[in-house]
Amino acid sequence: METVKYAAEIVQELHHAVERIAEEEAEQLADIILQSKQVFLAGAGRSGLMGRAFAMRLMHSGMNAYVVGETVTPGISKDDVLIISSGSGETKSLIPMAQKAKSLGASVVTVTINPESTIGRLSDVAVMLPGAPKDKANGSYATIQPMASLFEQTLLVFYDAVILRMMDKRGLDSDRMYGRHANLE
Question: Would you please indicate which residues are annotated as catalytic (active-site) residues?
Answer without folding.
Answer: 152
